[in-house]
Amino acid sequence: MFRLSNLIASVVEDKKERILDGSIAIWNFTNRCNLSCLHCYSKSTLDEVDTLTTEQIKKTILEMKANGVKFIIFSGGEPLTRKDLFEIADFCKENGIITYLSSNGLYFTKGNIQKIVDTFNYVGVSIDGDEETHDYFRGLKGAFKETLKSVLLANETGSKVGIRFTMTKDTIDSLEYIFDLVEKHNIPKIYISHLVYSGRGLDNLKMDLSKEQRREAVEFILNKAFEYYETGRDIEIVTGNMEMDAVMFLNKFTSKYPNLHEKMRERLVKWGGNSAGRKLLNINSEGDVRPDPFFPLIVGNIINQDFGTIWKNGELLDKLRIHPRKQISGICSNCNQIDICNGGSRARAYAISGDIWAEDPSCYLTKEERENI
């Protein structure tokens, strides 16, 4: 995740940087879901049966804690379809692990919303555009109205709530609408995700943005981030799954604060770009462990292996943890910005070329941007 709003404020105001002290696990606790979203990487349905038991999950949480995992993002499917989800989240809290909930919001009610926001440190709800776009993309008529109602219900509690939005050719025309929505209702956070080719996202590869569309969208997002900072608007912007955004961000930041260029670049290099297998991992509903949720290769399974054994060993993880990943071929091999982006998504590279160490085909940086520091 690229927390651009936090970076602007911390560097310009010379505040202590926000350091990820530990690893983040995105855990798909269930593959059961009440929606059928076009871009879903887990291909979830309501017919799925949970594989992992509560006891297995708790055992693994203790193993993860012992191996430096400090954050768990509760994902799915729709995580709230698991009856033991609050028990699991409470167990995380008892063991000092921060929890985020990633939900479609359709199970939020006036009766359970306070319990949800009290249980999780942050609640993110996915909205894919205006009403027509969201309902089409989510495969359910009326989903938008119910999801927006859920977001507002959560936001009224005063807790940290955010909207998650995935950019595709089908949703990109709603990008400005989503920002208007956040501003209108004073939603404290907006997370913009670039598409990764996996699950239904791979089936629908044609839905990805062109590089020209992506640049235009990122330019709009960056302008919003600087606008919010300069006007004192307390809305946090985060982008995901496209670490090259940081290079465009650096160029825009430098144009506004040229004397802080080196300081910001040092901060971005320390951030480290793509963190799959380094500070990021995924566990799916079957117990498979991957370097990120979209990664095409499995490094182990928690049902028959101790998490520490999986996380500490393995040639693939060792290679992923090299920073910067100069072993990546193509345009990455002579790019002067690889210490910032770390080569981008290995999942996208593999999906297009069959080579885990090929260049990220979605990189939209120009030759000049790749060469200049």
Index terms:
373 residues, alpha/beta, ten-stranded mixed sheet, globular
Question: Summed up, what is this model?
Answer:
With 373 residues, this protein is of the alpha/beta class.
Descriptive report:
It is a single chain. With 373 residues, the chain is an alpha/beta fold. Helices cover 40% and strands 14% of the residues. It has 16 helices and ten strands. The protein has helices at residues 4-12, 54-66, 85-94, 113-119, 131-138, 143-155, 175-185, 200-203, 211-231, 245-256, 261-271, 307-312, 315-320, 338-341, 346-353, 367-371; strands spanning 23-28, 69-75, 98-103, 122-126, 161-167, 189-194, 236-240, 280-283, 288-290, 300-301. A ten-stranded mixed beta sheet has the order 7-6-5-4-3-2-1-8-9-10. β2, α3 and β3 (98-103) form a beta-alpha-beta unit. α1 packs across α9, α2 (54-66) runs parallel beside α3 and α10 (245-256) runs antiparallel to α11. The longest helix is centred in the middle third of the chain and has 21 residues, at 211-231. It is globular and about 50 Å long.
